[in-house]
Amino acid sequence: MDVRAQSKRAGWRMGAHMGIGLFTLFSALPFYVMLITAFKRESDLYDPQNNPFWFTEPPTMANLDLLFGSTKFLTWLLNSFLVGALVVVITLVLVIPAAYSLARLAGRWGETLGIGIFLTYLVPPTLLFLPFAKVMAFLELQNSLWALVVAYPTFTVPFCTWLMLGFFKAIPRDIEEQAMVDGYGRLGAFVYAVLPLAVPGILTVVVFAFTLSTSEFIYALAFVQNSVQKTVSIGVPSELVRGDVFRWGSLLAGALIASIPVSILYTLFIDQFVAGLTALAK
């Protein structure tokens, strides 16, 4: 290989590394701002002459003391995880058989029906929360976490059904047909031959459903008012903003702490998440 080709390849490699480095810095910037703001004094934060990306005054724990000592932040975290876990279970129970039926049993109408189901996901919650309020009143679930457990699957199930539909279609039919030749029925072939191959798609659904349900704001604001029943997405902004007074240090500390479990979830399942989205795009 001549010197010119080696120099060109080294230039491309350096450009790629610089691009990845810039993208990494851009992606990490929100977390850095949340982290440094969580320990800044208000006088340091509100002075426009100070460096917003570093401490001009000594760090303080006052923002964390306010968050943990004067609010029900730990209760909101627990509520968020409880609602997220229940929504994930409900979503998986409904989505897996629905997506498999559309992919294998609905014939040429399956994909059209899947797209129709996905389109319901695009209806904004700002339009749906009014009729949902009547449903929650009928079910006597106002001001309760169970209102969120009932409401959230209405947007996780359509999206995740469309997601799993593409994943099941990517699994060759020959595998389950061979299982049926070996003596399994349709259900047995689905459980023992198809589901193990669909694990990346199922994990993608888990990540999506949990993330969407823990970050949702409109339904949580409309259906839950009691402080002990709130989730993080509504508890932090509603309890730490009083009129025109914003507790920015505590607000960003709460946002940072709440984002850590979701970040860990994405990190643990990033390979399966990418595999699921790649299968969907084929």
From TrEMBL:
Locations listed in the record: Cell membrane
GO biological process, one term: transmembrane transport
Residues annotated as transmembrane: 20-39, 73-100, 112-133, 145-168, 189-212, 248-269
Any Gene Ontology CC annotation: plasma membrane
Keywords, comma-separated and alphabetical: Cell membrane, Membrane, Transmembrane, Transmembrane helix, Transport
InterPro entries assigned to the protein according to its UniProt record, in alphabetical order: BP-dep_ABC_trans_perm, MetI-like, MetI-like_sf
Domain (ABC transmembrane type-1) ranges: 77-269
Any Pfam family matching the protein: BPD_transp_1
Coiled coil: none
Top-level lineage group: Bacteria
Bilayer disposition of the protein: Multi-pass membrane protein
Family stated for the protein in its record: Belongs to the binding-protein-dependent transport system permease family.
Protein name as catalogued: Maltose/maltodextrin ABC transporter, permease protein MalG
